[in-house]
Amino acid sequence: MSTKIACLLPGYNCGECGYKSCRELAEKISCAADLTLCPILSQERFKENAATIIGLLGGKGHKECIRGVIDGLVADFALASLPGEPSCREDIYPFDRDAKIRVGDVLSYRPLGCPIKHFARVLRHEHGMATVHLVGPVHLLNGSKMPEDIGICLVSAFEGMVSRGRTPDVGETVSFLPEHCMMQKVHSGVVVHSEGSRVRIEGIDLKVWQRASNKIR
Ligand code: SF4
Questions:
Q1: 95: Cβ below 6 Å to ligand 1?
Q2: Residue 18, pLDDT above cutoff 90
Q3: At 12, phi and psi to the nearest 5?
C-alpha cells in the first residue's frame, strides 16, 4: 500500500510535509486528512493522484484520523459529553480569588492559552475549583442577562466519553480533541481515570510538544 501511495505523491522529496522524502510520508499516511501535510499535492495537476490515494485509503484496516482544525495535529481520541450532558466536563481554577461562583449559575471565562471566551454552567465548586459544562452563548438569545465574567481560568481537567479513536490507559500522556472545542484544537494531558469509554484527563495543556514537527505518529 505505502509503495502505491509513494508513487502517487509528487516525488519532489522537498521535506515540506515534515518528512525527508515522499516515501517516508507515504509510510505514515493512514487517512485522507494526512494528505494535507503535502502542500504540493493540493495543486490542480495532482488532483487525480490525491483522489486515487483517498480511494486506496478507503479499504478496511485503516484507522480513523482525528486531526485538529486550527493546528492540523493528530489526536489519540475525541472527547464527548457524559450521557445526557451538554458537553464534556471541565475543571477550572480562576485566577481571581474573589470571583463569585455559585452552583447552577452560568458564568463566562477565558481559559489560559485560549483566545475564545467560554460560557459555562457550574456543577460543583470545591476548594477554589469549579466543575463546569459549556453551554455556549445561545442562552443569551432567550433574553438571559449577560453572565458574570470571572476572567482568566486555568483549565486543569476534562472528563467525558471517548467518542472516536482509541480508549487510553490510566497514566498515559495523550492528545485529545474535545468535541465542543470551538477552535477544534488538540489538547494534551495525563489520563488519571479510565472506566470503559469514560476518561478523566488532568494536567491539561494546549501546547502539544511531541507534535511540534506536525508529524504523524
Ligand atoms: S511535501 Fe510532498 S513533495 Fe515534498 S517530500 Fe513531502 S510528500 Fe514529497
A1: no
A2: no
A3: -80, -20
Residue 59 CA: distances (Å) to CA of 7, 67, 109, 165: 18, 20, 44, 18
Q: 129 and 202 in contact (C-beta within 8 Å)?
A: no
Q: What is the best residue among 8, 12, 36 to mutate for testing ligand 1's pocket, by most ligand atoms within 8 Å of CB?
A: 12
36 CB within 6 A, ligand 1 = no
Q: How far is CA 150 from the centre of its chain?
A: 25
Q: What is the pLDDT of residue 138?
A: 64
Grid cell locating 7: 508513487
More confident residue, 19 or 68: 19
Question: Which residues neighbour 154 within 8 Å (Cβ) at sequence distance 6 or greater?
Answer: 92, 93, 95, 111, 112
Q: How far apart are CA 30 and CA 187, in angstroms?
A: 21
Q: Which of 17, 29, 34, 214 to mutate to test the pocket of ligand 1 (most atoms within 8 A of CB)?
A: 17
* Residue 209 pLDDT: 62
Say which residue the cell 485509503 belongs to: 57
Q: Do residues 91 and 130 make contact, with C-beta atoms less than 8 angstroms apart?
A: yes
Q: Is the CB of 214 under 6 A from ligand 1?
A: no
Contact residues for 35 (Cβ-Cβ < 8 A; gap 6+) = 29, 41, 50, 53, 54
